[in-house]
Amino acid sequence: MTPVHPQPSGAAFDAVLLLHVGCVLAGIVTTATAAATAARVRRLAGSDTPLPETLSRYFRPGVNWAGRTVWGIPVFGFALVAMSQGFYAVTDGWVLTGLVLFVALALVAEGVLWPAERRAQAALAVRSDAHGTARPADAAVAAATMVRSAGVVLVLLAAGTVVMIAQP
Hints:
- With 168 residues, this protein is mainly alpha-helical.
- It has one domain.
- It has helices at 11-45, 53-58, 72-83, 93-124, 136-166.
- Helix 1 (11-45) packs antiparallel against helix 3 (72-83) and helix 1 runs antiparallel to helix 5 (136-166).
- The radius of gyration is 20 Å and the shape is elongated.
- It starts with 10 loop residues before the first helix and ends with a helix.
């Protein structure tokens, strides 16, 4: 007979759970923001309208550290499993499903979304030549890739959230 472990509780477990959920929420917000902002760039890239300051600021070159908070999801998830003292296990179907969904999310984000974001940043940066013009066609292509890949990431985040709540 296997011993039955009590439902995990305590301040430390609750704090780690809040961090885990916070990383999910930050991932959803930053990914939705990336999709919405890229959609605006895609619409404006073909027109003569200059990019608003907010879009230029968003696509300033640099790493999207806020988006990288999704890496906290498995870190805090594994911590929760470890802190559960056997109530949860990595071999539980719902934990494995969540892990597979996260791996897919990481592959899409690291392989498609964030590289497209870097391409959009480069395309929208003012070149240092005499004309000082951005490359709107490149920005539109990168933005379209961002919109599609962000949609996939959002679906994976939503699916993972459903799995974690339902624990089937």
